C-alpha cells in the first residue's frame, strides 16, 4: 500500500474521514493541507528532500478567505503539478459529477482516479485508493461513462481551453497568440471566433462574460 499520502481538502471532517480510510489501509505517513498553495509547497518540499508523496487526494473546490493565494482550486493545483512534470498519482474527491470535467481531468492532466462525494463516497474512495495502488484507473459509478466515446458530451476539450483563457480576461486575439505560442491547433483567429460564437449559441449566452459565467455554473471551468 502507499506509504506517504497527502490529503488536500478545506473541511476538517473530510480530512479526518480520509485519514481514517488511509490508516485502516496501513498507510504510514499521512499529511494534510487545507489550501492548494500549501499542498503544492508540501509536495515540492517533499520532492526536494527526496521523500516525495506516493499519492495526492484532493478536492476541486476551495473557499477563499483572507489569505492571498495563487492556486484557487484543486484543478489549478493539478495543472501546476503536471506542468512541472510531477507525475504523483492523483485521486480527485469532489462533489462535482459533470462528465466533461472528469474527461478533461483524465485526458489533459492524467489523473488516476475520480470519486464523487456522496453517501457511499468513503467506500468508493477506498476502492479508488486500492485500484490506483495497483496501477489501475478508478472512476465512481456516477461518472464512469465520462471516457466512453458513445457519450454525447456537450463540448470538446479544445472548447474548455478556450473558455479557460476567456475566463482569464484574454481577448480573441490574445487567445490566438497564446495557442500559437504553445503550439496548440487550431489557433487561427477566425477559428476561435467561430468556436466561441457556437458556444454562445449553444449555451444561450448574451456575451463573453455571460458565457464564462454559464460555463462556471456548469462546472466546466
Characterise this structure.
There is one protein chain. This protein is of the alpha/beta class and 221 residues long. The chain folds into 2 domains: 4-143, Rossmann fold, CATH 3.40.50.2300; 157-217, Arc Repressor Mutant, subunit A, CATH 1.10.10. Helices cover 48% and strands 11% of the residues. The protein has helices spanning 12-24, 36-48, 74-83, 99-109, 121-133, 157-167, 172-181, 189-202, 208-217, and strands at residues 4-8, 29-33, 55-58, 90-94, 113-116, 138-139. Helix 2 runs parallel beside helix 3 and helix 6 packs across helix 9.
Shape annotation? globular
Which structural class do the helices and strands define? alpha/beta
**Distance between the terminal alpha carbons, to the nearest Å?**
33 Å
The CATH level-2 architecture of the largest domain is identified as: 3-Layer(aba) Sandwich
CATH superfamily of the largest domain: Response regulator
Please describe the biggest sheet, giving its number of strands, its sense, and whether it closes into a barrel: 6 strands, parallel
Provide the helix percentage. 40-55%
DSSP helix count? 9
Whole-angstrom Rg: 18 Å
- Integer average pLDDT: 91
Kindly report the spatial arrangement of strands forming the biggest sheet. 2-1-3-4-5-6
CATH class of the largest domain: Alpha Beta
Say what the CATH topology of the largest domain is: Rossmann fold
SSE pattern, N- to C-terminal: EHEHEHEHEHEHHHH
How many β-strand stretches?
6
Q: Please indicate the count of domains.
A: 2
